[in-house]
Task: structure prediction
Amino acid sequence: MASINLRALAPIGVFFLLCFVIAVFSPNFLSVSNAIRILNASAIPVVLVMGATFVILMGSIDLSVEGIVALCAVVTASLVLNDTTGANLGLWAVPFAVLAGGLIGAVNGATHVYLKVPSFMVTLGIGFVCLGIATAALGGFPVRISDRGFRALTLGRSLGLPNGIWVAAASVFVALIIQERTRLGRYVYAIGTDEITARQSGVPVERTRVLVFVLAGLFSGLAGAMAAAQLGQGHALIASGRLFTTITAVVVGGTALSGGVGSVLNSVVGVLIVVVLTNGMVLMGVPPFVQQGVQGFLIIVAVSLALDRRQLEVVK
Amino acid sequence: MTEKQKELLRNLVPIFTLLILVFGIAAYEPGFLRPANLITVTADTMTLFLMASGATLVIMLGSIDLSIQAIASMTSCIVAAMLPIFGGTALLFALAAGATAGVLSGLVVNYLRIPSFVATLAIGGIMTSVAFWASDERSIYISDADKSAWLNWATGTTGGMDNEVLVGLAVLAGLSAILSLTRFGRLVRAVGSQERAVVASGINVNRVKFLAFVISGFMAGLAGLVMAARLGSGSPTLASEFLLPAIACIIVGGTAITGGVGSIWKTFVGALIIAVVRIGMTFVGVTVFAQQIVFGLVLVLAVAMTIDRTKVAVVK
Result:
């Protein structure tokens, strides 16, 4: 048991160590305004990892994050007051974006389960389809949002903190309830640990798998609406780089890619580690293009530390 | 149907698909069948084929390489940046860099036991950073003098035939020979069909996988060189759009992602199918933006059709 606890606590240790090291090199790091900046930058990634964690807990993967976020950002931007369409739904655009995300998630899940295609292949293909739709619908141009009230979804402040942080906190709360207090949550762990045994014990594997991809789609849809509100526009490239950050955060947080081990709270810590690292590199003057390389390196280190090699006979 | 008839059918379907598509377009536009035009179409397809050729070996193992587009972009930057300083040696540096990326992927998969789709995703991220570093975050123009001195093998003509086609045919012949005549080639198929049996026979599976990833990286690097030569520049995002079509042409050609089944000529045919479909879509009036949607769907459907479901007990 001790080793399991250690494994769960290690990411938090890494987080504090990282903060300490950056603070030594750059004292500005420890200001209140920088802390808020870090939390604000974490908001969208946190929403994204809420869905991705459940998918990875099942031992699957969702590579369509960027496609869904981009498409839902375009949907959102087209439904609020903007320069391209005549719509003006205001905040009511958000539920539409979330639903659109859930729908794409359902396509992912149904294709994966009923055509028996591995999830990385389905989500790779569907992700490109979404990016294609987002590009084709706009002919490559962005939709600019002119609705200031809607942009308050991430830019406004409540109780002194940007609203995006509150949206992210609410997402964590919902995901935590699903993980801890629902059957779906328990089924996810059962499937991730041993799918064959889970099936024999009566876990509805197919339905659970589809539902988890729908859940991931819903969170990605919400993240798309937030991205549109944050940048004031919707276009096909709005989400580039999000997939990488999402997977890095989930695995750095300690959720194993082989499934069954991890939690949404781990992933929140994972996001904080990735964002603090990015923030620290900016403060220390490291060029921004190095970040993708550093994240790639982090993925490899984190996955290799979290893998339970006893279970692995064949690695594909 | 016997196994042999099934095998024959599997070999013939891609070829007939290609022929039907070609004659379909010729019905609209008879000039399409002119030899000069067919050569041009083939020459335009070769960069895609080169990228997919090495990755075919990886997919035949039942693994995947998601770093090929990043590697190709990287070598385009390296060659464009180094040609003015080092002359022809720059080509060797670029190819070595491509192979090195493959070495890294192979080491990470073999010794850290990380599944290839995550390992190559991460290595791809690192290579993108290298590309940004090598190119100083911009696209680099290759002077005409350097181009005619060092890149004529890729873009010139020999006896009326475009050199791209000759390079493509040489790679087709070389890799096919490796696959069907060498011990390594037979082991690639064996590992893809029954990895456990190969391990139990006392064969070093790691060496086979390692070599496949190195060849994949090398060929992606070569594809980057040809791309840079054709466009007259190198850029860190030069090949970003190529991952989806490259994997699609491997699968459409009839190589199954479950491993064991496949060959290089299938990828060659698959690449031509993708190219002809693209031309056909332009004829029918599908915008360039929407083509990604079609390729995404084609990818998922082709995987669903070619996958061997008896081989995987649990689809993750």
Observations:
- Chain A is about 70% helix and 5% strand.
- Chain A touches chain B through 56 residues (CB under 8 Å).
